[in-house]
């Protein structure tokens, strides 16, 4: 209440204090009419940058951790070794499987030779049909044993390959779940990491804006310094969070660079409607404490200070909710009008005493 009274007292003092000679200098003033324009309404939300590729690598075979070439925050290229498990057991199984394959292949050679001999004499009618069928079945069984032994070798080679864990994509390590010398089992997490090459913005959209945002599919993402980020495809989750009743919205960033990292906070503006509003240049506004005012030309073309109620800012334009009408002319440089720096659109100052 006290602040409001002071603002009104300041307004009255300012009007009385302004030198009369200024009323005759209106021809030198920079003025512009109050314009009625279509004003886009946006809802401002906080979004978070996250990596598109982020995963945890787990063990696919059992063993003891032998090497961990990289630590947390290290950069890793795709295909580089990140974990080496002790592989003596897997190598022994591979050797055993290879020996079984060689045995099966030798048995196949023997069965094939026997079948060829019996087939030759069978054509001359010197062996029974039963012996011929038995030789043919033995050959088929030998071929099946070779295939089974080959599958065993393939499986043993795969298990041996699981002892070498490589990076699935280029990125940085974010967490290490095991230490050298620790025994691991299949499914146990080893390392976590993410890629900085593909990033996206995730934001929670209030339920009342969901339908309109889904139909328009427009959003502006900016950093804290005002820089606008280029975004790509938008993805709307088809369900709401039961706790917050908000819908998740994802947008791909099309210009990831070294200055963007997962976890950073960004501003997301989503258009939710439009309305007609009265707009004036933002620099024409006079601020003092809680007072907001404009210099408006009266019927005689003299500037008069008039209190207004302001709304949202759109670029270099300011929305005026009440206090002026469409077409009225306002002074765009109030500081030049009275020759005092505390009357600019900037910050609060001291009123003349």
Short description:
Helices cover 27% and strands 37% of the residues. By secondary structure, the chain is an alpha+beta fold. The strands form five sheets. Strands 2, 11, 12, 13, 14, 15, 16, 20 and 21 form a nine-stranded antiparallel β-sheet that branches. The chain has a four-stranded antiparallel β-sheet with strand order 3-10-8-5, with no helix packed on it.
Describe the structure.
This is Efflux RND transporter periplasmic adaptor subunit. Belongs to the membrane fusion protein (MFP) (TC 8.A.1) family. It comes from Marinobacter koreensis. The structure is a single chain. With 353 residues, this protein is α+β, with helices and mostly antiparallel strands. Helices cover 27% and strands 37% of the residues. It is built from 5 helices and 22 strands. Strands 2, 11, 12, 13, 14, 15, 16, 20 and 21 form a 9-stranded antiparallel β-sheet that branches. Strands 3-10-8-5 form a 4-stranded antiparallel β-sheet, with no helix packed on it. Strands 7-6-4-9 form a 4-stranded antiparallel β-sheet, with no helix packed on it. It starts with a helix and ends in a 15-residue tail after the last helix. The C terminus is likely disordered.
């Amino acid at each position: 209440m006290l602040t409001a009274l002071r603002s009104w007292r300041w307004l009255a003092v300012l009007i009385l204090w302004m030198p009369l000679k200024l009323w005759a200098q209106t021809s030198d003033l920079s003025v512009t009419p109050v314009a009625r324009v279509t004003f886009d309404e946006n809802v401002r939300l906080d979004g978070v940058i996250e990596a598109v590729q982020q995963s945890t690598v787990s063990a696919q075979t059992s063993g003891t951790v032998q090497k961990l070439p990289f630590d947390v925050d290290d950069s890793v290229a795709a295909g580089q070794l990140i974990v080496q498990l002790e592989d003596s057991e897997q190598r022994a199984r591979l050797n055993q499987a290879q020996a079984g394959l060689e045995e099966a292949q030798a048995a196949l050679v023997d069965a094939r030779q026997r079948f060829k001999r019996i087939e030759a004499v069978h054509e001359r009618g010197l062996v029974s049909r039963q012996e011929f069928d038995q030789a043919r079945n033995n050959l088929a069984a030998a071929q099946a044993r070779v295939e089974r032994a080959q599958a065993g070798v393939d499986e043993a080679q795969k298990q041996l390959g699981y002892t070498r864990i490589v990076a699935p994509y280029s990125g940085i390590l974010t967490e290490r779940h095991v230490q050298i010398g620790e025994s691991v089992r299949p499914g146990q997490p080893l390392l976590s990491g993410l890629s900085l090459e593909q990033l996206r913005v995730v934001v929670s959209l209030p339920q009342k804006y969901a339908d309109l945002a889904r139909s328009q599919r427009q959003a502006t993402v900016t950093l804290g310094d005002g820089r606008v980020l280029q975004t790509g495809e938008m993805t709307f989750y088809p369900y709401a969070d039961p706790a917050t009743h908000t819908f998740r919205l994802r947008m791909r960033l099309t210009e990831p660079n070294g200055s963007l990292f997962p976890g950073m906070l960004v501003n997301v503006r989503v258009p939710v409607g439009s309305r007609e509003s009265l707009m004036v240049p933002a620099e024409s506004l006079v601020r003092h404490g809680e007072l907001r005012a404009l210099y408006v030309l009266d019927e005689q073309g003299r500037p008069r200070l008039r209190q207004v109620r302001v709304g949202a800012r759109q670029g270099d334009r300011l929305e005026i909710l009440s206090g002026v009408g469409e077409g009225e002319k306002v002074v765009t440089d109030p500081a030049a009008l009275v020759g005092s720096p505390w009357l600019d659109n900037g910050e609060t100052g001291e009123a003349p005493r």
